[in-house]
């Protein structure tokens, strides 16, 4: 029987393993998992039931939808995972999990090699130092990366690709590994289900089809939750007709953080956020300009604020003294110019291209100019629209840069997310304090299965894993792969375990469809469908959330400033918003999706606010400032801030966890680091 809008069909499926999301991380998990699952089947005859569900279509879902033009994490020969660990730590102001980052550093290149094998064109440098596009390099017989081919480094960690079809290529490999029967596209998961007899264990997940009137309820022993980061929880700089634009993908709505928290998973560093400097209005990325084109950003009067304001870095030892200052401090120096009225900020594309023309051949210059456009066409096509619409030729006219609205993510240059179990073969106890801990890592960093959250059977990767940023596309894929093996092991270890849902399927289905019921019940009360005292549209509710976050939780409109009092106001307003959210309506499946995205955003916004409130310092100047605690306090706050949500009382508990360096960080600094 197929369902109707009034009475949706409820499909219940029993699985061993469920993968939620179809982005870089989940594609990695899918690819790797099938290798282990097939080995298990060959050896034992056990055929693990595995399914992947994505709210969109795998080929273009997630952050890499439009493609990318660089892979930002490729270690390659000459660097080592410890160097990578140091860089990540420094960029995130010293508070990351060295075990997770180092572990990823050991395997990330393997994912890049696979991408190349699957057809991703990677720029190469030949023996004469000449650069070639990926396809040309292949035609000319330049070896693949894994056979010693030299990539074109845009930066120390980044390599250039022709990546318009990056996601297609990665998705194809995942689909091939899984087989189409194991994939359900356009199913939005809204809720994780705990086990009735052990609330700290996962038992499944539930969602609905965004195309058909169907609710899906999955029972599963192991669940991968990799549904990306959180976008549009702050009022975006682009309003009105541009409101659908953002830098990070608008379709990732905090599902990872909200659902994991509701299931009881310990969260970490949720105060962290990323406020990227981007080309104004189109959100075009800047990495290629800064790193490959060696462009400088200036204030309106042509002054390089990184030089002009460099003494401001001294306020933040030891990080300000790093050879490459952290991204937030680079913003800090930029914001000074904007606040003092010396904006707009410009990317000096004119000088950069003229300088490159002095040393490169005309053919290479032409290629680079084409790349300037391709960089946007690959990953942020709207920026090309801006350049065309505003008659921008980057050789002749500089473009404005602007710090964007904040995004929550754990894979790009941010580190909020979920606390996970680390690798099993890293890190000797360094201090006496840990000498009695049987595990090799600091206490509480490992509980057996790599990438498992503190909820048994619930795993995460990519934007989901907290305290370890700078994975980017390649790292998210690799991290998904790392989890796959542990998930198969967990599913086998718990094969005889009988799961029981802590809610009935009827309760779950009713909760999912509630916004539809609200609409159907009240729709005839007024003649204007959007104006009704009995419900609020998801769009209006989203605007309210964004306004609260923007004005009180350090959004753009306050230059990223907040304080204890403003946070108090936000807390109160969010409470009221949550009450009203219960009255969200859904007049069609699209609005049902929007309503549930909002629920996820609200919970994510709340935990972000609570963490900022708890951490009594400003750890990320340039990303946010607590003006009542406007300093970095290494003595008291060089620690993780973690939290747990109780879905019954709806209360958050924030607490400190000790931070330990496993990799020596002194190499990062011009002067010796104090710790
Ligand atoms: O230029 C549900 N990223 C870059 N990485 C690089 O390596 N190089 C770059 O050049 C990068 N740049 C960049 C990047 C991203 C974006 C948007 C731009 C530019 C414009 C970052 C990476 O893309 C990012 O780190 C990874 O993709 C993260 O991977 P992952 O798997 O954690 O998230 P995802 O790929 O967005 O996938 C999420 C999936 O979840 C689905 N989903 N499914 C079911 N139910 C729900 N409730 C769901 N909610 C979400 C999504 O559909 C998706 O499949 S640059 O700026 O530096
Ligand atoms: P973005 O385009 O800003 O997302 O950056 C892409 C990559 O370049 C990421 O690895 C960033 O950390 C790095 N990056 C961007 N800008 C700079 C900069 N000014 N200095 C050093 N690294 C940068």
Question: Which terms would index this structure?
Answer:
single chain, about 675 residues, five-stranded parallel beta sheet, four-stranded mixed beta sheet, binds ligand SFD, binds adenosine monophosphate
Report on this structure:
The protein has a domain at 277-403: Flavocytochrome C3, Chain A, domain 1 (Alpha-Beta Complex), CATH 3.90.700.10. The N and C termini lie far apart (65 Å). It is of the alpha/beta class and 675 residues long. The radius of gyration is 24 Å and the shape is globular. The chain binds ligand SFD and adenosine monophosphate. Ligand SFD binds next to α1, β3, β4, β10 and α13.
What is this structure's SSE topology?
Elements: E1 9-14, E2 17-20, H1 24-44, E3 50-54, E4 68-71, H2 81-91, H3 98-117, E5 124-125, E6 131-132, H4 134-139, E7 150-151, E8 159-163, H5 166-178, E9 183-185, E10 187-194, E11 202-209, E12 214-219, E13 222-225, H6 255-262, E14 267-268, E15 277-279, H7 287-292, E16 297-298, H8 305-308, H9 327-339, E17 345-347, H10 349-359, H11 362-379, H12 381-389, E18 399-403, E19 417-418, E20 458-460, H13 472-493, H14 505-512, H15 514-522, H16 538-552, E21 561-562, H17 564-581, H18 589-614, E22 625-626, H19 634-637, E23 639-646, E24 651-658
The site of ligand SFD has 42 residues, from α1, β3, β4, β10 and α13.
